[in-house]
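Progress against Task 2.4 (sequence-to-structure conversion) is shown through the following example record, which the project officer requested during the mid-term review.
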Amino acid sequence: MTYEGPRPESDLDSAPFWEGANDGKLMIQRCAKTGQTFLYSRGLTKGVDEASVEWVQSSGRGEIYSFTICRVPSDPFFADQVPYAVGSVTLEEGARVPGRLVSKDLDAIAIGHPVEVDFDQLDDDLAVPVFRLVG
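Structure tokens generated for the chain above:
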């Protein structure tokens, strides 16, 4: 299978995230000194010592912090998928991560609604985390 849409770029900072996704794991970063968790944005996280940052597997459970319903595609490739939802999810570990919100009923999506991670395997080399509503 070959995915023809836009692809995220894996670089030195994000490679563990994308490798984890391909293995069905949601990887986030944690500062071993402070315990703060985040998604490779340590330059924006106060009090984090870059030398003590480690990658850890998230539970993948959290709740919707914010969201929007996209009615105009972000790229022509997604034209047949509108409307769809994207949002920011606060994970149990405290990290806030962006992602697509998947629900058969877009009206069911609400701030505070519980979600859990799933992975869309777009091709042999690319899995993308998405969040499905729980309950």
